[in-house]
């Protein structure tokens, strides 16, 4: 006669086999996980194909390829000239001075459609374009504004013209040295000098364009509203302009920590105080009420969907992750609030530069229009769109600019100079 222990053993064995069969069936019916990077790519294929048409395939390839970097020479190191000579021996050229060296032969023969783009739009002070949405997209082949309309103050497009005369950068760029490789090789990590200061900072070359668009003047008080991780702040400090003060603000603790680390690694001890650099960690949306009419120039590099990072970034920190869906849907509201706060914080006659690292028309030109309208309705602030055509013309052989921008300028990813995407637009406060 079978014992009770044997009966229990047989029963538990059948139960275990049943559980194994159930788990196999459950895993067999489970859908494979959807990665956030794939979600981002599917959305980009949907929207950007309509925005760029046939050009999207080459832009898509560049986004999925290894990005290209540049080296911003630190002028506060022990011997910046020796650093420049060392970078030249590696095969790099200074695109602030010798951008013609980065012009490949195939560009010289065929031309790049984006290189002929000059984003010069004069916005009427009390006129704001209708609000945009992702559905209201246009192709790069849209008709654009003529030079006559631009001179008369009419809005509605940009001029596609290339000036044969030489175009020079503003005085703010006279002290910036930005080196880029003529091939696809990478820069070695920067080494500290005798004082422990790193010699150059690795960044996307297009990141200096918003800094140049600030058009800094001697005595300006500058606010970098979203300063982390610190590349643009470092570029502002490295300009030849003697500023009265720089406020580097970063609300996120991790990025603020990185900002302080960059300033510590690239500036000599006490130089931050000497240059009037102050690091803060306030909510950027509060600057309009905290310090109204206080700054001559404001840089607003807002959080965005970060097109390139969304395809290559860590899964947990990807903005397209399901856990960050609410943050992504509320992003446009945050961008409008940040830019509106910047327009309130700048003095009348001062300038604000808005920038993103996305190609989304809603997050770029659409946000600019909405923020201008919001500032006008809530604070009676009138603004106009500034001209950035000199930057577009000077860097037309180094970057590929989109022809579809009606205001501001957009750097498109392209091979072999795989920089961007980066959008920037200059606004001038009138009253």
From TrEMBL:
* The SAM-dependent MTase RsmB/NOP-type domain, residue ranges: 121-430
The entry lists its GO molecular-function terms as: RNA binding; RNA methyltransferase activity
Give the compositionally biased regions (Polar residues). 144-153
Positions contributing to S-adenosyl-L-methionine binding:
226-232, 250, 283, 301
InterPro entries of this UniProt entry? MeTrfase_RsmB-F_NOP2_cat, MeTrfase_RsmB-F_NOP2_dom, RCMT, SAM-dependent_MTases_sf
According to its UniProt record, which residues of this chain constitute the active site? 357
Q: The organism sits in which domain of life?
A: Eukaryota
Q: Which CDD domains match?
A: AdoMet_MTases (cd02440)
Catalytic activity annotation: a cytidine in mRNA + S-adenosyl-L-methionine = a 5-methylcytidine in mRNA + S-adenosyl-L-homocysteine + H(+); a cytidine in rRNA + S-adenosyl-L-methionine = a 5-methylcytidine in rRNA + S-adenosyl-L-homocysteine + H(+)
Q: Kindly list the biological process annotations in GO that this record carries.
A: rRNA methylation
Q: Where in the cell is it found?
A: Mitochondrion
Keyword Transcription regulation, does the record have it? Answer: no
The record ties this protein, via Pfam families, to: Methyltr_RsmB-F
Q: Among the entry's GO cellular component annotations, what is one?
A: mitochondrial large ribosomal subunit
Entry annotated with the keyword Magnesium: no
Keyword set for this entry? Methyltransferase, Mitochondrion, RNA-binding, rRNA processing, S-adenosyl-L-methionine, Transferase, Transit peptide
Region ranges (Disordered): 136-163
* PANTHER family cross-referenced by the UniProt entry: 5-METHYLCYTOSINE RRNA METHYLTRANSFERASE NSUN4 (PTHR22808:SF3), NCL1 YEAST -RELATED NOL1/NOP2/FMU SUN DOMAIN-CONTAINING (PTHR22808)
- What does the sequence similarity comment in the record state about its family? Belongs to the class I-like SAM-binding methyltransferase superfamily. RsmB/NOP family.
Q: In its UniProt entry, what is this protein called?
A: 5-cytosine rRNA methyltransferase NSUN4
Q: Supply the source organism for this entry.
A: Branchiostoma lanceolatum
Lineage, broadest ranks: Eukaryota, Metazoa, Chordata, Cephalochordata, Leptocardii
């Amino acid at each position: 006669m079978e014992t009770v222990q044997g009966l229990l053993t047989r029963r538990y064995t059948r139960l275990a086999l049943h559980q194994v069969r159930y788990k196999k069936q459950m895993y067999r019916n489970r859908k494979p996980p959807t990665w956030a990077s794939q979600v981002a790519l599917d959305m980009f294929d949907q929207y950007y194909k309509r925005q760029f048409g046939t050009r999207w395939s080459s832009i898509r390839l560049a986004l999925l390829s290894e990005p290209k970097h540049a080296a911003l020479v630190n002028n506060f190191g022990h011997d910046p000239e020796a650093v420049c000579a060392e970078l030249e021996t590696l095969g790099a050229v200074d695109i602030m001075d010798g951008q013609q060296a980065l012009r490949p032969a195939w560009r010289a023969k065929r031309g790049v459609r984006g290189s002929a783009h000059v984003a010069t739009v004069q916005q009427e002070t009390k006129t704001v374009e209708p609000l945009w949405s992702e559905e209201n997209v246009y192709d790069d082949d849209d008709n654009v504004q003529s030079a006559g309309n631009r001179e008369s103050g009419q809005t509605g497009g940009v001029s596609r013209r290339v000036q044969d005369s030489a175009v020079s950068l503003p005085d703010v760029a006279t002290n910036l040295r930005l080196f880029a490789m003529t091939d696809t090789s990478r820069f070695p990590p920067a080494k500290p000098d005798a004082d422990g200061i790193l010699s150059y900072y690795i960044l996307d070359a297009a990141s200096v364009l918003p800094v140049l668009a600030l058009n800094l003047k001697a005595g300006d008080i500058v606010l970098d509203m979203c300063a982390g991780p610190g590349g643009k702040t470092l570029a502002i400090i490295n300009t030849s302009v003697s500023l009265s003060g720089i406020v580097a603000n970063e609300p996120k603790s991790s990025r603020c920590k990185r900002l302080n680390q960059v300033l510590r690694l690239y500036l000599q001890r006490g130089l931050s105080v000497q240059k009037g650099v102050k690091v803060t960690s306030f909510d950027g949306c509060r600057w309009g009420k905290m310090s109204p009419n206080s700054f001559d120039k404001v840089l607003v590099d807002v959080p965005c969907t970060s097109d390139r990072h969304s395809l290559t970034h860590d899964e947990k920190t990807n903005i397209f992750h399901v856990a960050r869906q609410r943050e992504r849907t509320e992003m446009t509201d945050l961008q409008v609030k940040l830019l509106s706060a910047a327009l309130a914080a700048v003095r009348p006659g001062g300038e604000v530069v808005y920038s993103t690292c996305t190609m989304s028309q809603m997050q770029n030109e659409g946000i600019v229009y909405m923020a201008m309208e919001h500032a006008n309705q809530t604070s009676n602030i009138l603004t106009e769109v500034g001209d950035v055509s000199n930057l577009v013309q000077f860097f037309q052989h180094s970057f590929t600019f989109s022809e579809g921008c009606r205001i501001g300028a957009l750097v498109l990813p392209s091979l072999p100079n795989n920089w961007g995407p980066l959008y920037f637009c200059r606004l001038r406060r009138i009253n």
